[in-house]
């Protein structure tokens, strides 16, 4: 397969073994297209998702792919990311609106009317200085569910307990996050059968989320059924919630805060999207963090000695407790670096100049955190799990080269909450259990581009009580 590049009158053809590249981006079967005003594509190498050196591609710092009729121009040089996030020539809302319409049935008009308001509301509610109350409630919910597992092991007379790690993390985290953000028991977390029904539908919704942004409904029967199930649930929940929104703004749950600002009939739809955003990345990355910790004996010993000491001496969990476990936080940041979302995107609304090239209006401009985080200039030995590289990172800021949470006006508003919940969960988990990965760390499934990667294989583990 060939990809054509054209610079002024010169047409440069570059052989592309790009089907592998596309596969590695998860774009199976989509078309590689023509670059209209093209860069001389030299220079920056991009590692494939599976990161083998033999798959390294040299498409250059700027290149365009035509995917399902849409021109996508990728920026791969970290020096251009700031411009990507800050330029007024590109637009976040115009890039994502049609996907939100397909996925959540929010009309174009409703999207533009409410999106910024919702973003700012979530950002305000989950801002760094609003997090302390969540410390205690997340800690107590996680503990409740993890102690449930501990009791199952104890019942077996302290013997080992076999489990699938991804399922275990999911089932213990989902309920806790839902209760914390949406209100205790507001979503079906208290009744096991109802929760299972929810989980089944949510997993289908999540798994095919990205296809749903592009494919006609006809190919998505099962997904549409699950989406409708979730929408019906949120229709009931938001109706009840509207009648019980407390006057005191500070005591409102995130759901109540959200519903209070939406001024049309799409509350259930936005709430469903909010639920997805709050579960889809943080929970798989928590799973990967645990896998990576248990896979690396030296790291494991360091985390164990840190968390067991601190949590033994502190029954409660607050900010100062977490500050005593900095290495665990470094492990989490390192796992986020290695399992960042595949891409995020902006729509070019005014000709965008980069490296001497003019990217035309209408293009989707793309940046891949997954690949950016494998740039060896910024992250030496990029494939290695090295928590120490985060040693001197300040608590409420990230280095410019770390873009897992996006950037600019619409940067992930849940990022501090995500780090908090993961820090509490991982430290509790390691303090309670010894865990042996029976088959090592699973491979990455490359189907998720917008969200983080899921494991291909199951991850069987043997759990026992921490010694
Ligand atoms: C490790 C976990 C997470 C990662 C890697 C992540 C990453 C991202 C990214 C890359 C974006 C798009 C930003 C952009 O294009 O500039 C985003 C958006 C968003 N995230 Fe997160 N996120 C995580 C956890 C969370 C959590 C826990 C919540 C909520 C509690 C959340 C809520 C949101 C929302 C609501 C948006 C949409 C913003 C908008 O449309 O304006 N995220 N996230």
Automatic annotation (TrEMBL):
One of its GO terms (biological process) is cholesterol homeostasis. The keyword Repressor does not apply. One of its GO terms (molecular function) is oxidoreductase activity, acting on paired donors, with incorporation or reduction of molecular oxygen. Its cofactor is heme. Keywords: Heme, Iron, Lipid metabolism, Metal-binding, Steroid metabolism. It holds the Pfam family p450. Heme binds at residue 412. SUPFAM superfamilies: Cytochrome P450. The keyword Iron applies. Belongs to the cytochrome P450 family. This is 24-hydroxycholesterol 7-alpha-hydroxylase-like isoform X2. It comes from Biomphalaria glabrata.
